[in-house]
């Protein structure tokens, strides 16, 4: 599903963010990516959705080698991938329904299918009743639910989540995690970068710890392992 082979990433300013990572994530896994600030987690995550490109090495996601993927083909690749950000990245002038539907409209799905599928995922995240509201009319937790709905509306095999609970209060964070659990239980692979020690230690999954751009720990049922 996801494989990194001898991956290095050095930025133009000389900073080496990733220093020889080899890792394989199987279909259906739920993986936390943890580590101290500046460890290379963000670069690790961004390379999976082709925001960053490795300096050397190969990254294969859904059979696509991102190290060799031409820029013009990146949007097509991302259609089969779900990405959830800390700051939601919703389109402010579109309703909840329109934000989620947009992901299907760009791939020219049939209107009848779009309506059915959008309402399905809004129901899954508990926001079917707020379909016609704007993002500014929602709480932070509700906006993140819309972001999750948008990320899964095209039924991706993989969802990449970069600090998805970072801007949320503890109660809302647990609600969001319950949604991710449900998505994972339906067979979707989830890779989540997080600083939330309590969540990692309570809802246990595989933990990949990165320090100095290297994987220093990879445990099937791991704990956070750092002081916040």
Describe this protein's structure.
By secondary structure, the chain is α/β, with parallel strands linked by helices. It has a single domain (2-219), classed as P-loop containing nucleotide triphosphate hydrolases (Rossmann fold), CATH 3.40.50. The chain is 32% helix and 25% strand. It has helices at residues 41-48, 74-78, 96-105, 111-124, 140-152, 170-185, 197-202; strands at residues 2-10, 16-25, 30-34, 56-61, 64-65, 81-84, 158-162, 189-193, 206-211, 214-219. The strands form two sheets. Strands 6-7-8-3-9-10 form a six-stranded mixed sheet, sandwiched between helices. Helix 6 (170-185) links the parallel strand 7 (158-162) and strand 8 (189-193). Helix 3 (96-105) packs parallel to helix 5, helix 4 crosses helix 5 and helix 5 (140-152) runs parallel beside helix 6.
Name a few traits of the molecule.
alpha/beta; Rossmann fold; 4-stranded antiparallel sheet; 7 helices; 10 strands; membrane
Q: What topology does this entry show?
A:
Layout: E1 2-10, E2 16-25, E3 30-34, H1 41-48, E4 56-61, E5 64-65, H2 74-78, E6 81-84, H3 96-105, H4 111-124, H5 140-152, E7 158-162, H6 170-185, E8 189-193, H7 197-202, E9 206-211, E10 214-219
Parallel strand pairs: 3-8, 3-9, 6-7, 7-8
Antiparallel strand pairs: 1-2, 1-4, 4-5, 9-10
Helix pairs in contact: 3-4, 3-5, 4-5, 5-6
What is the CATH C-level name?
A: Alpha Beta
Count of distinct structural domains = 1
Query: Radius of gyration, rounded?
Result: 17 Å
Ends apart, CA distance between termini: 31 Å
Protein name: Cell division ATP-binding protein FtsE
Membrane topology: Peripheral membrane protein
GO molecular function, one term: ATP hydrolysis activity
Subcellular location: Cell membrane
């Amino acid at each position: 599903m996801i494989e990194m082979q001898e991956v290095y990433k050095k930025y133009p300013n000389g900073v080496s963010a990733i220093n020889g990572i080899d890792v394989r994530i199987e279909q259906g896994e739920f993986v936390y990516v943890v580590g101290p600030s500046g460890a290379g987690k963000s670069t690790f995550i961004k390379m999976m959705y082709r925001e960053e490109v490795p300096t050397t090495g190969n990254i294969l996601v859904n059979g696509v080698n991102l190290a060799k993927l031409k820029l013009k083909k990146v949007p097509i690749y991302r259609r089969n991938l779900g990405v959830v950000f800390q700051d939601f990245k919703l389109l402010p002038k579109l309703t909840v329904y329109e934000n989620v539907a947009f992901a299907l409209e760009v791939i020219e799905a049939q209107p009848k299918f779009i309506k059915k599928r959008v309402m399905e995922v809004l129901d899954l995240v508990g926001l079917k009743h707020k379909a016609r509201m704007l993002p500014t009319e929602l709480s932070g937790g509700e906006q993140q639910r819309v972001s999750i709905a948008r990320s899964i509306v095209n039924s991706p095999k993989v969802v990449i989540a970069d600090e998805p609970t970072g801007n949320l209060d503890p109660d809302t964070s647990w609600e969001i995690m319950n949604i991710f659990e449900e998505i994972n239980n339906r067979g979707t692979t989830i890779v989540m970068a997080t600083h939330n020690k309590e969540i990692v230690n309570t809802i246990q999954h595989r933990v990949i710890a990165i320090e100095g751009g290297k994987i220093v720990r990879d445990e099937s049922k791991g704990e956070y392992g750092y002081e916040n």
